[in-house]
Amino acid sequence: MTHQEKCCAKKGLSWLYETFWGFPTRILKRPFKGFDAMKFEKKGSYLFAFFVLILESLISIMNFVYRGFLINHSDIYHVNSLYLALTVLFPVALFVLGNWCVTTLMNGKGKLGEIFMTIMYAMFPMCLLQLVALFLSNVLTLDEMTFVYAIETIGVILLLAYGFIGLVVVHEYGFGQSIGAIILTIIAMMILVFILMLIFALVADVWDFFTIITKELMLKYF
Amino acid sequence: MRKLICLILALCFISSTGALADARTGSSNYLYTPHDEIVAAPPAYTLARSITARDIAEVDALDGLVDAYKDENGVYILCSKRLIIMDHDLKVKRVLTSYMDGEKEVKLEGCTGVTFTKNGDFYITQSEKGQILHFNSDFTLNKVMGKPEIVGYENVNYRPTKMVVDAAGRLYVISKNMYEGILELNADGTFTRFFGVNEVTFTPWQLFWRTFSTKEQRSRQVLWLPSDFTNLCIDQDGFLFATLLSTDEKTIKRLNAKGENIINVSEEKPYPQGDLWTNETGFGIPTGKSQFIAVDVNDYGAYVCLDSTRNRVFCYNEDHSLLFIFGGPGDREGYFRNPVDVVFVGENILVLDSLAQSIEIFSPTKYGKALMNAVKYQYLYDYDEAAKYWEEALSYNHNLTLAYSGVGRMLLRAGEYEEAMEYLKMGDDRKYYDKAYEKVRTATLREYFVPAILVVLGLIAVKLTVSGVKKRVQKKRKGAA
């Protein structure tokens, strides 16, 4: 291996470390500074954001199948992994879109990509804690399962806290304004779901219409 | 070669049809998994024979079958116009069609329920006449009990349909249109109290709409009344099993002396409610939840319930786990047209079919026998014997969750924790799995604790020495420089 190659390999390794551990942990240690760096110094990585998204989807599948038998009441022989992944992907997409819709109208400075990245960086600690909980659920007895639930709850609280801080920083909002934006986001999410349902119903009707017409034609002419 | 294969296939076919011809097919052969899914099960009870009027010389017709009762002396079948007394082999001993009320001979008419006491005297309820006939053990009339005096109920119709007598001689009577619960009467027929009232429950949605409706609308709405009881029986511990017309899943209740329902199932297990998956859309098939109209308990706490929606019989053990299902609507063997009552007679189960005018006798298959024996020995705390029968039942039905947990519990008691874990997991029995797992984990920890600590200590020692050596080397280098 030449010197140059060695150097390149070292650089690659350090880049890997920085994107997947260094920067995320820096955000965890100093969230305000970290999210600031993500937005203004372009330190955030879409690669990492998508990595967390996929990891969280995988964890939701793993939680269904590999959670310890003592607290796993799911029917593990009938697992729908696509549905389980969607239980993560869909709410994230909905929140990011809803938040973007609301904040563009409320003079928020965050872009769609930045909102997405923020949520994903905030989700990272929850992912790690869920992995720990998943492992513990296979080792602990029924009395000790409280730890598992506690760890999972802490994960959710961390997601909420970091997500909130991240959104404050990214949109350059005050505290009250942020709360308002989040409440409006939830309303926007409901509206989005409503519109989606409308679209699905309409598409189904149109589909029905065309299938019936084809059937009629087939019966008449063929 | 091809001929050989054909021969082998033919042999297989012949042997398999032979096996089929040997086995009794039964009806409604399914169970529910812990995840409430339907899974096929071997028949546990199949039709042994059915008794119609043709088989009983003493009666010309078995019309209006309404009730069956069994005690240690015999089996009693009540039609609306006659009482048939049989022994346990279902041989008719006596038929009662009329009784002497003083000088006057009165024919039995409109009977709805019968119950016997330990002394041999018995009661027959006549719903339309609003009275209960009390007979002595020699079949002479003791007294006729009319409507008991209840303050405030002077204008309410008294329609006693079914009743039971407890060990102390108290009468528990179900009366139609008395929504306050089961009537508890003293032995002389005087009223003591209402018992086990069915609370009216509302959904938030109903209450929400009710707040918006006007007085006229409210007066036109259906009254929200507590549901009616339909049938009852006393179990081996003296508790009352009662079935009721209910809109929620609690269509059977086990009542204690205070009248509270004591069927408590854990969150994982469904309430004993018959079918868990039901058709809601119609298309000529019965819709809605199962509606139990009759119940009977055997000596080991297992109870059978008769579902009037789909004419099926469900059997549960004392822990309210489903054991087996049989029956169904239809004319074929093992199906019913209008079943009205179900009763255990020895190891057999009797079902009265009022439309077919027959008494259907179901006897256990090998599988059913193993199942009932396992339940019996489990009830008697003989877990080793029970496990033997659970294993036999498992050899017929690999999907029997209950049996896996039964075997698992025995293994746990025998100290074979790892095997126990395997069985308890298949039995979906988390409580006992936890116990077995704790033992296994403790043993593993004990085994590996010392080596693990040694390894960790060793690693620390290696690390310390290495860093020490490094430092010394650096110092030497510095010294050299």
Tell me about this structure.
The complex is a heterodimer of chains A (222) and B (481). With 222 residues, chain A is mainly α. In chain A, 82% of the residues lie in helices and 0% in strands. Chain A is built from seven helices and no strands. Chain A has helices at residues 3-29, 31-40, 46-65, 81-105, 112-137, 145-171, 175-221. In chain A, helix 4 runs antiparallel to helix 5 and helix 5 (112-137) packs antiparallel against helix 6 (145-171). The longest helix of chain A has 47 residues, at 175-221. The termini of chain A are far apart. Chain B has a four-stranded antiparallel beta sheet. In chain B, helix 4 runs antiparallel to helix 5 (383-396). Chain B is elongated and about 135 Å long. The chains are: A mainly alpha (222), B alpha+beta (481). Chains A and B meet through loops of A and helix 8 of B.
> In one word, what is the shape of chain B?
elongated
CATH superfamily label of the largest domain in chain B: TolB, C-terminal domain
Model regions low in confidence, pLDDT < 50 over at least 5 residues of chain B: 11-22
How much of the sequence lies in strands of chain A comes to under 5%
Q: What portion of residues of chain A is helical?
A: over 70%
User: What is the strand arrangement across the widest sheet of chain B?
Assistant: 3-27-26-25
Provide the structure class of chain B: alpha+beta
- The N- to C-terminal Cα distance of chain A equals 72 Å
Low-confidence stretches of chain A: none
How many domains of chain A, as an integer? 1
